[in-house]
Amino acid sequence: MMKLRKIGRLFVIKTRLEAFLVTYAIAVGAIERGAHYMQNYPGNGGVLLAVACLGVPFVAGAKLLDSVRPQPVGGMPVKLTPRHTTRSAISRSRPKRHRSDRGLTLPSSHHTD
């Protein structure tokens, strides 16, 4: 079981350099697959499949780089907190009735009973 964990750690991407290297390998494979598509499917179909293959490294590279965060100088990981912890007092769904000095009327209404 211990040997499986040691082998498993080899496949964990920890640094940005490793993420860039994996992205490069994905890009080389995508170029190769795109070339095969253009040979096997001449015309617009092969070109469209090749372009689809070339989009894969951009998406995968972005995901890999987002998953690997740079470590701060102190070595301690940074705990991310949400920007807004409280709910906004204003709701966009519908206006709320506010109690005024004239009773339960909407502020825009000038009707008095």
A few lines on this structure:
The chain has 113 residues and is an all-alpha fold. It has helices at residues 2-9, 16-40, 44-67. The longest helix is centred in the N-terminal third of the chain and has 25 residues, at 16-40.
Helix content: 40-55%
Largest sheet: none
Coarse morphology: flat
Low-pLDDT windows of residues: none
Average of per-residue pLDDT values: 78
H/E element string? HHH
Count of DSSP-assigned helices: 3
Q: Rg to the nearest angstrom?
A: 28 Å
- Distance between the ends: 81 Å
**How many β-strand stretches?**
0
Instruction: Name the beta content range.
Output: under 5%
Strand-pairing-aware structural class: mainly alpha
Protein architecture, described:
Helices cover 50% and strands 0% of the residues. With 113 residues, it is mainly α. It has a domain at 12-67. The N and C termini lie far apart (81 Å).
Topology:
Elements: H1 2-9, H2 16-40, H3 44-67
Helix pairs in contact: 2-3
Brief descriptors of the model:
113 residues, mainly alpha, 3 helices
